[in-house]
Amino acid sequence: MKQELFSNHFAVGNNGCLVFDGLDLVQAAKTFKTPAYFISEAVVRENCRAYMRAMRQQFGERFKVAYASKALCSSFIYPILQSEGLNADVVSGGELYTALHAGFPAQKLHFHGNNKTDDELLQAVQCGIGSVVIDCLDEIERLDAVCRHLEKKIPVLLRVKPGVDAHTHEFISTGHNDCKFGFGIEDGQVFEAAEMLSRCKFLDFCGLHCHIGSQVFLKEPFGIAAGVMVALFARLNKEYGFSLRELILGGGFGVRYMPEDTPVPIPEMVSYLGQCLRESCSQHGIDVPEIVIEPGRSIICTAGVILYTVGSVKKIPHARTYVSVDGGMPDNPRYALYQAQYDACIADRAAQEKSEIVTIAGKCCESGDLISRDIPLQPARRGDTLCVFSTGAYTYSMASNYNRLPRPPVVVIQNGCGRVVVRRETYEDLVRNDVI
Ligand code: LLP
């Protein structure tokens, strides 16, 4: 049986090895060592273009696609985003610093966070950030004070909980009412915040924001949330006399991790959003405002693979087979956190049938340190290169040094060649900040 490959960016070379966008992954494992993150620039650009094209079709020129930096934040990503015409969001001083360090224009950034520090607010206003998404009442006063001090007026939006259940893992679902992010509508908090904003000379209240959750596979929750947000938008403009002009509808569009996953294709998702927005706006008698979306995972996830080297292969009678690799939860904590599952392949024998069911384990002293549980795989041998698919999002950006493992490098694939854009940490890096 011919083994299905993860996507059309993968092929099997004449030597039987897995090739990703022209790069032989077994050779790449030798060149760059393992574990290592690989990101295909072509796939990132393809996803950016799909969003830009679909949004332009729906909203003409009144839209922005803002990449959610948290999915993978490192200097190399920003020039790619900029050349594709995207904006970006940041959620911390560190992400903001990275984007600016990479030369991304501050004006094209907006700043999120449920507990921004005074220092972060100062940093954001000082650099001339595009806008700040306000998450709690005291942030209004603190941001106004910073702006008054610097004599700079900045655009702000209110983060709103639209009260929508996104049908995703509880920890990555954020639109319902009992959630730490944003202001409620029913409890009146968003109106209290709006009134406070109307008294702040240095804050230009320009719009509303919501984000219902992440890795959402259904279209409908996005449509429902858009309807709730448009109603609130219209009410604030008509009844309260504001002049809001921007509506950010967050990210969260699901991607394919496992062969059976069926995410909504980008053009279909965006066209559904467009249709829902036009309907709600006409129902409330307003023009469609400038629409912003914040996809993170759906831009970077399928662009990435992680390569590991197989170490011990332990067959436990009447239990399972553990294939242990030279990384694990420090480079990809998503199984440990969310029981996330991944598809994988032995890159050395990519065309061979996946005739075994195995559990891929990391090398940490923790039984929960798995990468994927009970998945089909080619028979694995010590020294094989294991490729784990769809690992571009929330892996490097959530990596740690648990068990003192140095963080792997990030290698960007461009025209069939790999280029290190984040170097591998060394043991010296590990002790760099230790004070003796
Ligand atoms: N906008 C806001 C305000 C967000 O909080 C997020 C994600 C996004 C956009 C981007 O969502 P995306 O398109 O990437 O799904 N660590 C978790 C995901 C946490 C997502 C947090 N917020 C995971 O590994 O699944």
Portion of residues within helices: 25-40%
Low-confidence stretches: none
CATH superfamily heading of the largest domain:
Alanine racemase
CATH arch. level architecture of the largest domain? Alpha-Beta Barrel
What is the mean pLDDT?
96
Instruction: Count the DSSP helices.
Output: 12
Walk me through the topology:
Blueprint: E1 10-12, E2 18-20, E3 23-24, H1 25-32, E4 36-40, H2 41-59, E5 63-68, H3 77-83, E6 87-90, H4 93-101, E7 109-111, H5 118-127, E8 131-134, H6 137-150, E9 154-161, E10 183-184, H7 189-198, E11 203-209, H8 220-238, E12 246-248, H9 266-283, E13 290-293, H10 297-300, E14 304-315, E15 321-325, H11 334-338, E16 344-346, E17 356-361, E18 370-377, E19 385-388, E20 410-414, E21 417-422, H12 427-431
Parallel strand pairs: 4-20, 5-6, 5-13, 6-7, 7-8, 8-9, 9-10, 9-11, 11-12, 12-13, 15-17
Antiparallel strand pairs: 1-2, 2-3, 4-14, 14-15, 14-19, 16-19, 17-18, 20-21
Helix pairs in contact: 2-9, 5-6, 8-9
Ligand LLP binds at residues 68, 70-71, 112, 172, 211, 214-215, 250-253, 294-298, 334, 338, 394.
Walk me through the structure.
By secondary structure, the protein is of the alpha/beta class. It has two domains: 2-40 and 302-431, Lyase, Ornithine Decarboxylase, Chain A, domain 1 (Beta Barrel); 112-295, TIM Barrel (Alpha-Beta Barrel), CATH 3.20.20. It is built from twelve helices and 21 strands. The chain has helices at 25-32, 41-59, 77-83, 93-101, 118-127, 137-150, 189-198, 220-238, 266-283, 297-300, 334-338, 427-431; strands at 10-12, 18-20, 23-24, 36-40, 63-68, 87-90, 109-111, 131-134, 154-161, 183-184, 203-209, 246-248, 290-293, 304-315, 321-325, 344-346, 356-361, 370-377, 385-388, 410-414, 417-422. Strands 4, 14, 15, 16, 17, 18, 19, 20 and 21 form a nine-stranded mixed beta sheet that branches. Strands 5-6-7-8-9-11-12-13 form an eight-stranded parallel β-barrel, surrounded by six helices. Helix 2 (41-59) packs parallel to helix 9 (266-283). The longest helix is centred in the first third of the chain and has 19 residues, at 41-59. The N and C termini lie far apart (59 Å). The model has no long low-confidence stretch (mean pLDDT 96).
